[in-house]
Amino acid sequence: MAVNVRRLSCEPEAVFRVLADGWLFASWVVGASRLRDVDADWPRAGTQLEHSFGVWPVLIDDETTSLEWDPPRRAVLQPQGWPLGEARVEIEVRPHPGGCLVRMREIPAEGPGRFIRAVLEPYLLIRNHETLRRLAFLAEGGAGRR
């Protein structure tokens, strides 16, 4: 299980405005290269984003499902990343002096990734460090639905 934490200079609601705008997903998630569709009710639990990951010309079409949506405290997503499988990504946001703390936990949930967690974890920590950095740029800059 990979756990990353970052302090942001914005209120928790700003983070959730970015998360709520599914069309911004590829802007903050490292590896997501494009969005193909966003359910109209995103991010209500059970809704999905259709996205691709990789670098052209090697792109894999996948989906991410919202499992839990409790703004401005918690969101849980289940991205697909076959052939490695699926993950469970928990994003928790807490107020902090001068802003908020964002904690992202990624756990391989389905497929071969569950069996090579120790190999994947260092990569996930590095990737999610950058993912939170991008999320911070967007949230602190005021991106997302208003």
Describe this entry's structure for a reader.
The chain is an alpha+beta fold. The protein is 25% helix and 44% strand. Strands 1-7-6-5-4-3-2 form a 7-stranded antiparallel sheet. Strand 6 (86-96) and strand 7 (99-110) form a beta hairpin. Helix 1 packs across helix 3 (117-140). The mean pLDDT is 92.
Beta-strand content estimate? 35-45%
What's the end-to-end separation, in Å? Answer: 33 Å
What is the 3D shape? globular
Largest sheet strand order: 1-7-6-5-4-3-2
Strand count? 7
Over all CA atoms, what is the radius of gyration?
14 Å
- Helical content stands at 25-40%
Order of helices and strands: EHHEEEEEEH
What's the total helix number?
3
Major sheet characteristics: 7 strands, antiparallel
What structural class is derived from the secondary structure elements?
A: alpha+beta
Mean pLDDT comes to 92
Low-confidence runs of at least 5 consecutive residues? none
Relevant terms:
146 residues; alpha+beta; seven-stranded antiparallel β-sheet; 7 strands; globular
How do the strands and helices of this protein lay out in sequence?
Blueprint: E1 2-8, H1 12-20, H2 25-28, E2 32-38, E3 48-55, E4 58-70, E5 74-79, E6 86-96, E7 99-110, H3 117-140
Antiparallel strand pairs: 1-7, 2-3, 3-4, 4-5, 5-6, 6-7
Summarize the structure.
With 146 residues, the chain is an alpha+beta fold.
